[in-house]
Write a structure and sequence with these properties.
The complex is a heterotrimer of chains A (about 100), B (about 500) and C (about 500). Chain B has about 500 residues and is α+β, with helices and mostly antiparallel strands. In chain B, about 40% of the residues lie in helices and about 20% in strands. Chain C has about 500 residues and is an alpha/beta fold. In chain C, strand 2 (about 75-80), helix 4 (about 105-110) and strand 3 (about 115-120) form a beta-alpha-beta unit.
């Protein structure tokens, strides 16, 4: 019986970068348990010999030519930005290391 | 946070090898030189006005969709073929999900368990021995944006107040090449790592798919290292080291990590599986992010793209476009240049093969090209702590300097000063000769005066020469050269001396 | 503009010079001003823009350069599609005030065909829902009864069309979000074959299920609109290259009501308990009408369909959880900065907590779980396999019949608030519509009467094989004609929710 604990929900919320309040955690965990119980019913329905589907009509090899196409102006790109400095997106301090 | 070198204990290198076997792994990212990005038509050139090279797709705007750049697929296949890989008959892109401000979608469109190339190898030459490095996979992915960190003292992330992000680089095609664990390199592990990256670079450049410059970020290497007790066959915990920006750094970082791991293990401690950061200035690694499974990437096939299924015909067509196999190429060049095995080995080992080849193409004789790159310039690159290929001098410059020597405009000793000037940014070889007034004096009149002075100042030596002891001329040549401040052709000086004393 | 106004009729009158696009557009803007405070179908009305586009249409027509049959007929667009210069919120606070710098391909095609865009319609947040109650901007109300839901997630588009605020609208359908609102508002909704209409600029919910499609009052209108928006788009790698026949022709040819030679399959698994009796009664009558018109009706079992809901509620949250990661306060949209000196990560987390509603959070968490290492094979991986079984059931069914039929939704419009506390109860609204999205086949909902219990509309769903969208229109038009002959007038005439308003 797949239930999902409050702690698991908290962990998943962390992975999904959503700051759930205690009230929200209390509220969501049982609801998610019910949903999970329902969706878990598909377990074992499809055997190993059944391939997965992702598209009604299996397309392959959709490519574009390697040519430059005009995009947005910097102004358009930055138009919705919460904060801009020096034509760049200003973001709060980043923890952790650069790629 | 500054790197505290004193805090890291290192075991002496020989002791490391007495007790442990190193296992190496290298992940190299190649930034392709396509005209446009991996999934959209924006220019694949980093630089230019910030955020002026983006579109809804690479900026990750809601509703935008990716479309695969066919040229990037072609380049990926050619890289795979050059690395003796199998090319997938059918593969997909996958989303690698994680949050970071330089990631416009907070997932990277990459490939997960279905890479386009897999199960290959590259034969790497190190000091005359060949190491076969197995390639686990090469796959396609996209680059992230670039952040500037503002407010800290070092311009790096730690201590920064905030960051400024430019997405021009986001979406530029990358090919990630991953080796299988490289075992059995033993004491040569650092050199093998370096040679692999250097020779991989040669291959990439020969394919014409990237400039592959480590100092410009279009070739990036992450180094993985673990130690296992000698002979045990059990792989140890590995660390990953990033920010390795030159071939030199690759070698030094491997060596450092080997020594660091050994010190910890021999002290009874255990290695923390983590990502570390290399510091070229201080020669150490420092701890970065813990590489634990806290970061679950939740890979799943990219639903906005359809599978890539390269036909076997296309693959064979691309196989026909491959440049010469590196081993064959080296053998051919060695024969063409008349190098001995040792000379060839040294050239390859110094990472100078391409540079020597280009210098010869610019007109220099093979031995001359080799002499300068492996001599004067290798010395400089060591002193300055940079790779040969990163020195601010071109093969054309080197060929020109040799030509000036051949034309007797400068002699060997003066040529070194010309090198110095070019490296210092004073201009082209000819400009440096001009500015520094290095040209050899070819006027016999002026030379003759100096010769007369030398003869007059050294009568005993002059007598010996008159008596037929021609070898004694050396001392007089030296005197003349001194008076001429080196700006004379020694051979001509000798001729004049002998003429006057015959 | 009175009862029975359709887009086709407006197109004819425009062509005949009886009316101008500016007049038609103004009439609709007036209607919106009159009723939308009560209906709340629209999140944004662009009066100036629409009238400007209408004027351009009239000028074109005067020059003899009308762009096509629908040139000058105004349209509303669900707020999940990017419209350059018009706010696009997806019904969420996290995109409040966001104005896209680009148009979705569907919108580009509408503009190219000359349809003035009246505004953006309300929807469940990020298209997650079946009632439009999950909109962060307040619900839309059913023009049949303002205390009831208009369906979802595209309740705004359906209500706009049902209330005569627009003759046409664009919706999107991931698990029934066009068809189910159509059923509960007495209007027509079509989900095209997956890949038949471009998704470029459609803010993705479940990429492998989403399709944009027509929301209209008649089958012919839907067909005409589909002809404008459909077709391959190089910007959408999943869009199909196919020589589509004229859907307008298909709808016209079906409107005779003749169904001789058509084999109809009634899906065994989509009837019986759990389906409102009044809805079932109307469905059975519809089937009888089809038989009388010459159709051969058989029962077809699609056993895997019982797993469709579970499959859907695994695939959708998984894909959505990844799609919605981009809303992180860094590049656009809401930014909530907690007190102190927060890091980027803290700002992301606070913003997403404040900006996303409960249903969105539920599905993101569920999706994150389904994709987690250790759970992928059991959940998302397994769900993608069950899709194959569902597709096979459709293949087997279509080997026997030309179209499949079922009621579109299990109930008529329920009251606002009735199912909000019970997510599973809400999900059951999509029982009949979900399988088509999982298999990628086209479907239509056509009004088929009022349920006795409450006098509210129900819909008949018809499904056809992938690429057979024309069949959907042909049979749909026939069924529509058969019903209207019974009623003598369009069903919408019976809608009394906006009593007191002039049409």
């Amino acid at each position: 019986m797949p239930e999902i604990s409050r702690d698991e929900v908290a962990h998943l919320a962390m992975l999904a970068r959503i700051d759930l309040s205690d009230a929200e955690l209390d509220h969501l965990a049982p609801q998610l348990s019910v949903i999970l119980e329902s969706v878990a019913s598909i377990n074992g329905v499809a055997g190993d010999d059944v391939p997965p589907t992702s598209h009604a009509l299996p397309l392959t090899n959709v490519f574009r030519e390697d040519v430059v196409v005009p995009g947005l102006t910097a102004e358009e790109a930055l138009a919705g930005a919460p904060a801009v400095e020096d034509q760049r997106f200003s973001v709060p301090r980043i923890l952790g290391e650069e790629a | 946070m500054t790197s505290s070198a004193s805090a890291t204990e290192l075991m002496p290198y020989d002791d490391v090898l007495a007790a442990y076997d190193p296992a190496l792994g290298l992940e190299v990212h190649v930034e392709l030189n396509t005209a446009s990005k991996m999934f959209c038509g924006c220019p694949a050139v980093f630089g230019g006005e910030p955020n002026a090279g983006v579109c809804p797709t690479c900026l990750g705007l809601p509703g935008a969709m990716p479309v695969v750049n066919g040229k990037a697929v072609e380049s990926a296949i050619r890289i795979g073929l050059a690395l003796n890989c199998d090319i997938a008959e059918w593969c997909r892109f996958a989303r690698k999900n994680y949050f970071y401000p330089d990631m416009p979608k907070n997932f990277q469109t990459s490939q997960y368990d279905e890479p386009i190339c897999f199960d290959g190898y590259m034969d790497v030459d190190v000091d005359g021995e060949t190491y076969r490095v197995e390639i686990e996979r090469a796959h396609m992915e996209e680059d992230t944006g670039k952040s500037l960190h503002v407010g800290g003292s070092t311009g790096r992330i730690h201590g920064a107040d905030y960051s400024l992000v430019d997405y021009n680089r986001a979406g530029i095609p990358l090919i990630e090449i991953v080796t299988r664990p490289i075992l059995g390199a033993g004491e040569k592990a650092p050199e093998v790592a370096r040679a692999y990256v250097a020779q991989l670079r040669e291959l990439i450049v020969a394919l014409g798919v990237s400039e592959a410059r480590m100092d410009q970020g279009n070739l990036r290497a992450d180094v993985n290292l673990s130690l296992s007790p000698k002979g045990s066959g059990v792989l140890g915990t590995r660390t990953e080291t990033k920010n390795v920006n030159s071939f030199r750094s690759v070698e030094r970082a491997v060596r450092f990590e080997m020594q660091r791991h050994a010190a910890i293990l021999s002290g009874g401690g255990s290695i923390l599986q983590e990502t570390r950061h290399w510091h070229e200035d201080t020669g150490i690694t420092t701890s970065g992010r813990e590489k634990s499974d806290a970061e679950d990437y939740r890979y799943f096939p990219e639903p906005d793209l359809v599978p890539v299924a390269p036909s076997r015909e296309w693959v064979e067509e691309l196989r026909g476009t491959l440049p010469e196999n590196p081993t064959t190429r080296r053998a051919r060049l060695q024969a063409e240049w008349g190098f001995s095995d040792l000379e060839m080995r040294d050239t390859v080992g110094a990472g100078a093969l391409g540079l020597v080849e280009e210098t010869i193409a610019e007109g220099a004789a093979p031995q001359a090209a080799r002499k300068w790159w492996l001599g004067e310039l290798a010395r400089r690159s060591n002193e300055d702590g940079v790779d040969l290929v990163d020195l601010p001098i071109t093969p054309a410059d080197v060929a020109r300097i040799q030509a000036l020597v051949d034309e007797k405009v400068v002699n060997d000793k003066l040529a070194r000063q010309v090198f110095e000037g070019v490296l210092a940014g004073e201009g082209t070889p000819d400009e440096v000769v001009e500015k520094r007034g290095l040209a050899v004096v070819s006027d016999d009149g002026a030379l003759g005066v100096a010769v007369d002075n030398a003869i007059a100042a050294n009568p005993d030596v002059a007598d010996k020469i008159r008596d037929g002891k021609v070898a004694a001329a050396g001392a007089l040549i030296g005197a003349v050269m001194k008076e001429m401040r080196g700006q004379a052709d020694a051979g001509r000086v000798r001729e004049l001396i002998l003429e006057k004393l015959s | 503009m009175g009862h029975g106004t359709t887009a086709a009729l407006l197109a004819d009158r425009l062509a005949a010079g009886e009316v101008t696009s500016v007049e038609v557009t103004q009439l609709h803007l007036d209607r919106i001003a009159e009723v939308d405070e009560r209906v709340h179908a629209f999140l944004h009305v662009d009066a100036e823009g629409a009238l400007g586009q209408a004027a351009e249409s009239d000028a074109r027509r005067a020059r003899g350069e009308a762009r096509g049959p629908l040139d000058g007929v105004p349209i509303a667009v669900k707020d999940v599609l990017a419209t350059r210069g018009l706010p696009t919120t997806c019904g969420s606070k996290i995109l409040e005030g966001w104005v896209p710098p680009y148009d979705a391909t569907v919108v580009t095609r509408l503009r190219a065909a000359g349809l003035p865009i009246l505004g953006k319609t309300n929807m469940d947040e990020f298209a997650m829902g079946s009632s439009t109650e999950h909109s962060a901007y307040g619900p839309t109300r059913n023009p049949w009864d303002l205390d009831r839901i208009p369906g979802g997630s595209g309740g705004g588009s359906a209500a706009a069309v049902a209330a005569y605020e627009a003759p046409l609208a664009i919706g999107t359908d991931t698990g029934g979000s066009i068809r189910q609102p159509g059923a509960v508002t007495g209007t027509v909704g079509v989900k095209p074959t997956y890949g038949g209409v471009s998704r470029y600029g459609l803010v993705a919910l479940a990429n492998s299920l989403d399709q944009a499609g027509p929301v209209t009052r008649t089958v012919l209108d839907a067909a005409m609109l589909h002809d404008v928006i459909g077709g391959h788009d190089p910007r959408d790698s999943t869009s199909i290259q196919h020589e589509w026949p004229s859907f307008t022709e298909a709808a016209r040819s079906g409107s005779t009501g003749d169904l001789s030679g058509v084999k109809v399959g009634v899906i065994t698994e989509m009837q019986g308990d759990g389906w409102q009796p009044g809805v079932m009664a109307r469905f059975n009558e519809s089937v009888e009408l089809m038989v009388q018109a010459g159709a051969e009706v058989v029962e077809v079992s699609c056993p895997s369909f019982v797993h469709a809901l579970a499959t859907y509620y695994l695939i959708l949250p998984a894909e959505a959880s990844s799609n919605l990661a981009k809303f992180d306060a860094m590049r656009y949209g809401l930014r909530v900065t907690p007190d102190g000196d927060p890091s980027a990560e803290e700002v992301m987390r606070a913003t997403r907590d404040a900006g996303f509603g409960d249903e969105v959070k539920r599905r993101i968490i569920l999706g994150t779980y389904a994709l987690s290492s250790g759970y992928y094979d059991a959940y998302y991986g397994q769900a993608q396999k069950v899709r194959t079984l569902i597709s096979r059931d459709f293949d087997a069914a279509f080997a026997q019949v030309d179209v499949l039929a079922s009621p579109t939704a299990p109930t008529t419009a329920f009251r606002l608030g009735e199912k909000l506390d019970d997510p599973m109860a809400m999900y059951l609204n999509d029982l009949a519509t979900i399988p088509a999205n999982l298999a990628g086949v086209p479907g239509i909902s056509v009004p088929n009467g009022l349920a006795e219990e409450d006098g509210l509309p129900s819909g008949l769903q018809l499904l056809a094989p992938a690429l057979a969208d024309d069949r959907v229109y042909r049979v749909g038009a026939a069924v529509e004609a058969l019903h209207e002959r019974q009623w003598g007038a369009p069903l919408l005439d019976k809608a009394t929710g906006l009593e007191g308003a002039t049409r």
